[in-house]
Automatic annotation (TrEMBL):
InterPro entries: CALM/Myosin/TropC-like, EF-hand-dom_pair, EF_Hand_1_Ca_BS, EF_hand_dom. SMART domains: EFh (SM00054). One of its GO terms (cellular component) is myosin II complex. This is Calcium-binding protein E63-1. Residues 1-25, 63-98, 99-129 form the EF-hand domain. The keyword Repeat applies. GO terms for molecular function: calcium ion binding. Keywords: Calcium, Repeat. SUPFAM superfamilies: EF-hand. It comes from the Eukaryota.
């Protein structure tokens, strides 16, 4: 399906065509970066094994991101896109890790990169990873 010229490897054009058919629109630059990440030989061609290995890594990354989003949702009780100090306290108690006021302060200072007094999703991901 993917290897149009049946040479055992897929090139940038073949990958872009497949992605377009799946409704995934990527620029040529993005497809090039995808190939650079996946190609072990650096020849801008992917073997079936390289392509499948890349897809498996993407699948694992997608699973991790879905898990992180679910965890963030547990903390963000009011669904406003931020974890407040109170939400953090409640969530930590809920998972059996109650925190003192000092511990909450330390966690917020370490996590709240933009210093707005709450944790957004990006800050949460950085904390968890």
């Amino acid at each position: 399906m993917l290897d149009k010229n049946q040479d055992g490897r897929v090139n940038e054009t073949e990958i872009k065509c497949m992605l377009d058919k799946l409704g995934i629109v990527l620029t040529d630059t993005m497809v090039g970066k995808l190939i650079d990440q996946a190609s072990k030989r650096g020849d801008r061609l992917l073997s079936e094994d390289e392509f499948l290995a890349w897809m498996a890594r993407q699948s694992v990354q997608d699973d991790v991101m879905a898990d992180l989003m679910a965890a963030f949702s547990v903390f963000d009780k009011d669904r406003n896109g931020y974890i407040t100090r109170d939400e953090l306290r409640t969530a930590m108690e809920m998972i059996g890790e109650p925190m003192s006021e000092e511990q909450l302060d330390l966690m917020l200072r370490a996590t709240d990169i933009d210093k707005d007094g709450k944790i957004n999703y990006e800050e949460f991901v950085r904390m968890m990873i």
